[in-house]
Design brief:
alpha/beta, Beta-Lactamase, Alpha-Beta Plaits, 6-stranded antiparallel β-sheet, 22 helices, 22 strands, 46% helix, elongated, binds ligand C2E, binds calcium ion
C-alpha cells in the first residue's frame, strides 16, 4: 500500500479500477463459475467464491455452495483479504474475535474455515477475492494450497480483464467500440491539466444510416459490413500514429485527437473527404460513400456522455444540412435540444386535455364587414415553458408523424365548435390549417368524410388552408387529393400566397377557391411601394383565375382601405380582430353585430 498517500486514496483508486473492469455489470459468467468450482474441488472446500468488493457490498460473482448474490462489505472477511497482498487464512473462524459473530458464521452456511486470495490488478489494486470456505475448522491448509489459491485468483483476474477487452471490441471491424470511446474520453478528461494542449473528438458517418440500411437490404448485411471494413481501411490510411479509430455504430466511426490544433483539424477533414472521393467496391458493385464529419472540442462539455451526445448531434447536423462537416455549436445544440424537448412534450400535450386550445380569428367581407369565416389557430400552453408559438411547434411537428395527430386533434375540436355555433344560429365557416403531409399520406379524404358524418356537419361549413410552399413541393400527389376534397364541397385556400414563387400555370393546376396573400406583403403595405405593386399584381392574377382574394395581416385602416380599393374580397388581421378563444369570439360577435346595427 506504500504507493498510496493514505487509505482513502487507495480505496478511491481501487474503486476506480473495479469500475474500469466493467466486471460488476456481468453475471453468470461461465468461465468464472468454472474457476470457482475448480478452486473448491482442488482445495477440498464445499464453498468457493469469486467476490468483487465495491463501496458497500461484496458481490459474489461466482459461487459454489451458497446462493447469495451479495453480502454487506462491513465485517466480511474478504474485506480484510483485499487490504493485504497475501492469502488470508482463518483456520477456525469461531476462534477469531473479528469474525466469529459474522452472519455467515452464526447462521447459514456456518462458516468455520476461510482462505482467500486477493484479485489484484496490474497496478496492485485489489478489487475482490477468490476464496474457499469450509463448515468445519481446518488446520491442514498448506503452502502449496496457498499458492494454488493465488493461481486461481490470477486466473480469475485474467478472465475479468479479457472480458473487459472483449466488451470493448467491435466484432465486425475489430476496432474499439463506443463503450471504449466513452471510457477513453472520460480518462482523457480526468487526466487533463489546465495548460493541456487543445484536443477534440471527431466522428464520421461513411454513409447515412438510411443509406446503410438500403445497401444492407440490396446486397445483404454481410456485404454491407464488408463495405464498412473497407471504409475502415481507408480511414486507417490517415497517419496511423496520430489518431485511434473507434467503430461506434453501423457505418459510424469516431476518433480522439488529443493534440491537434484547429489548423490540423481542417486538414484532417479535407483528408477524410479526399479518402472517400472514389467509390468503394462492394461485391463487385462500386458504391459511392457520402461521408459526414462532426467535430467537437474536448472543452465543450465536462463529461464523456454529454460530449458523445453533442458529437452525435453535430454529426447528424452535418448530414442534415448537407455540409459534409460541422463543428459543434452550442447555440445550434441548444435549439436542437429544445426542439427535441418540445416534440416529446407535444406528444403528451395531445393526450392531455388542458394544454391545447383553438383560438379563432374572424375574416370579414371587405365591403359589408360581415364575418364570413373564422380561422382556427392552435394554441399550446406548455406546463413550464408557457405559451409556445405555433410557428415553432408546427414546423417541428411537420418533420415527424406528430403533424397527423395534431391535424386530427384540431379537426375534432373545430368540428365540435362548428356544431355549437350552428346550433346558436351562426353561419360563418371555420377555416382549418392542414399540412400538405396530411393529404400525402392517403386516406385523408375518407377520414374527413367520416368525421363530418360523425359530427353531422355539412362539408361546406369548413374551409381548408394549405400553405403554398408545401403545395409546390408535392404538387403531383397533392393535386388529385385536393380535387377529391373540392368535389366533396370543401373550400380550399392557398395560404401564405406569394411566398412560394408561384406562377400562372401552377395556380391554374391547383383546384383552390381562394388565395390568402401572405402577411409579409400586407403588414407594412401603406409605406412600401414595392409591396403595393406585388400585392396588386397578385390580386389581378388570382382574380383572373376566378379565385377569391383574402389579405391577412391587415393591421391598419390605411392598408385596409388600399386593399379594399384594389378589390380584395376579404380581410383578416389585427385591424379587424386578434385571434381569440371561442368564448371571447362570441362576445366579440355580439358586440360587432350591435355596432353594425347601430
Ligand atoms: P397562418 O396560417 O398564416 O396564420 C396566421 C398567423 O398570423 C397567425 O399566427 C395569426 O395569429 C397571425 N396574424 C393574424 N393577423 C395578424 C396581424 O394583423 N398581424 C400579425 N402580426 N399577425 C397576425 P399564429 O396563430 O401564431 O400561427 C402561426 C402559424 O402556425 C399559422 O400561420 C399556421 O401556419 C400555423 N398554425 C396555426 N394553427 C395551426 C393548426 O391548427 N394546424 C396547422 N397545420 N398549422 C397551424
Ligand atoms: Ca392559415
Ligand atoms: Ca398565412
Amino acid at each position: 500500500m506504500t504507493k498510496f498517500k493514505d487509505a482513502s486514496s487507495w480505496e478511491k483508486q481501487r474503486l476506480a479500477a473495479l469500475k474500469a473492469t466493467g466486471a460488476l455489470e456481468f453475471s453468470g459468467e461461465s468461465i468464472l463459475d468454472t474457476i470457482a468450482e475448480t478452486a473448491g474441488l482442488a482445495l477440498k472446500a464445499p464453498i468457493a467464491l469469486i467476490v468483487l468488493i465495491d463501496e458497500h457490498q461484496a458481490w459474489l460473482k461466482a459461487h459454489v455452495g451458497v446462493t447469495a448474490t451479495h453480502i454487506a462489505r462491513e465485517g466480511a472477511i474478504c474485506d480484510y483479504t483485499i487490504r493485504g497482498s497475501d492469502v488470508l487464512v482463518i483456520d477456525d473462524v469461531s476462534m477469531d474475535s473479528r469474525f466469529k459473530d459474522h452472519p455467515m458464521a452464526l447462521g447459514k452456511p456456518h462458516m468455520r474455515f476461510y482462505a482467500g486470495a486477493p484479485l489484484r490488478t496490474k497496478d496492485g489494486l485489489n478489487i475482490g477475492t477468490v476464496c474457499v470456505i469450509d463448515t468445519k475448522p481446518r488446520h491442514d491448509f498448506t503452502e502449496s494450497d496457498r499458492l494454488l489459491l493465488h493461481k486461481f485468483a490470477a486466473l480469475a483476474m485474467a478472465r475479468i480483464e479479457s472480458l473487459r477487452s472483449i466488451g470493448f471490441i467491435d466484432r465486425v471491424t475489430g476496432l474499439l467500440n463506443h463503450h471504449r470511446f466513452l471510457e477513453d474520453v472520460e480518462s482523457l478528461l480526468a487526466n487533463r491539466t489546465p495548460d493541456a494542449p487543445p484536443a477534440f473528438l471527431g466522428a464520421i458517418d461513411v454513409v447515412s444510416q438510411n443509406r446503410y440500411n438500403e445497401i444492407a437490404k440490396a446486397v445483404g448485411v454481410q456485404h454491407a459490413q464488408q463495405l464498412v471494413l473497407k471504409a475502415k481501411e481507408r480511414l486507417q490510411e490517415i497517419d496511423p500514429s496520430g489518431v485511434v479509430l473507434y467503430h461506434i455504430d453501423h457505418a459510424r466511426f469516431a476518433t480522439i485527437c488529443p493534440r491537434l490544433s484547429l489548423a490540423n483539424k481542417e486538414r484532417l477533414i479535407r483528408r477524410i473527404l479526399e479518402l472517400f472521393s472514389n467509390p468503394i467496391d462492394c461485391n463487385g458493385i462500386p458504391i459511392n460513400l457520402e461521408p459526414s464529419i462532426g467535430i467537437i472540442d474536448l472543452t465543450a462539455a465536462d463529461n464523456a456522455p454529454q460530449l458523445f451526445r453533442a458529437l452525435m448531434a453535430t454529426l447528424d447536423q452535418a448530414r442534415e444540412n448537407g455540409t459534409l462537416s460541422a463543428v459543434y455549436d452550442p447555440a445550434t445544440d441548444q435549439s436542437q435540444q429544445r426542439s427535441f424537448a418540445l416534440l416529446s412534450a407535444l406528444h403528451t400535450a395531445l393526450e392531455t386535455a388542458d394544454q391545447l386550445d383553438l383560438h379563432y380569428q374572424p375574416r370579414v367581407d371587405t365591403k359589408s364587414g360581415k364575418v364570413l369565416s373564422v380561422e382556427a389557430l392552435l394554441r399550446w400552453t406548455h406546463p413550464t415553458l408557457g405559451l409556445i408559438s405555433p410557428t415553432e411547434f408546427i414546423s417541428l411537428a411537420e418533420k415527424t408523424a406528430l403533424i397527423g395527430k395534431i391535424t386530427v386533434w384540431v379537426l375534432h375540436k373545430a368540428l365540435k365548435q362548428v356544431v355549437e355555433w350552428r346550433a346558436a344560429g351562426h353561419k360563418f365557416k371555420v377555416a382549418i390549417n392542414i399540412s400538405a403531409h396530411d393529404i400525402e399520406r392517403g386516406g385523408f379524404v375518407s377520414f374527413l368524410k367520416d368525421l363530418f358524418e360523425t359530427y353531422q356537419v355539412p362539408l361546406e361549413s369548413v374551409e381548408l388552408e394549405f400553405t403554398e410552399n408545401k403545395l409546390i413541393q408535392d404538387v403531383a400527389t397533392v393535386r388529385s387529393e385536393l380535387l377529391r376534397l373540392r368535389k366533396l364541397g370543401l373550400d380550399i385556400a392557398i395560404d401564405d400566397f406569394g411566398t412560394g414563387y408561384c406562377n400562372n400555370a401552377y395556380l391554374k393546376s391547383i383546384p383552390a377557391t381562394a388565395v390568402k396573400i401572405d402577411q409579409s406583403f400586407v403588414r407594412e403595405l401603406e409605406s412600401h411601394n414595392k409591396d403595393q405593386i406585388i400585392v396588386r399584381s397578385m390580386i389581378d392574377l388570382a382574380h383572373s383565375l376566378g379565385l377569391t382574394v383574402v389579405a391577412e395581416g391587415v393591421e391598419t385602416a390605411e392598408s385596409f382601405n388600399l386593399l379594399k380599393n384594389w378589390g380584395v374580397d376579404q380581410i383578416q388581421g389585427y385591424f379587424i380582430a386578434r385571434p381569440m378563444d371561442a368564448r371571447r369570439l362570441s362576445a366579440w360577435l355580439e358586440h360587432n353585430a350591435q355596432l353594425s346595427h347601430s
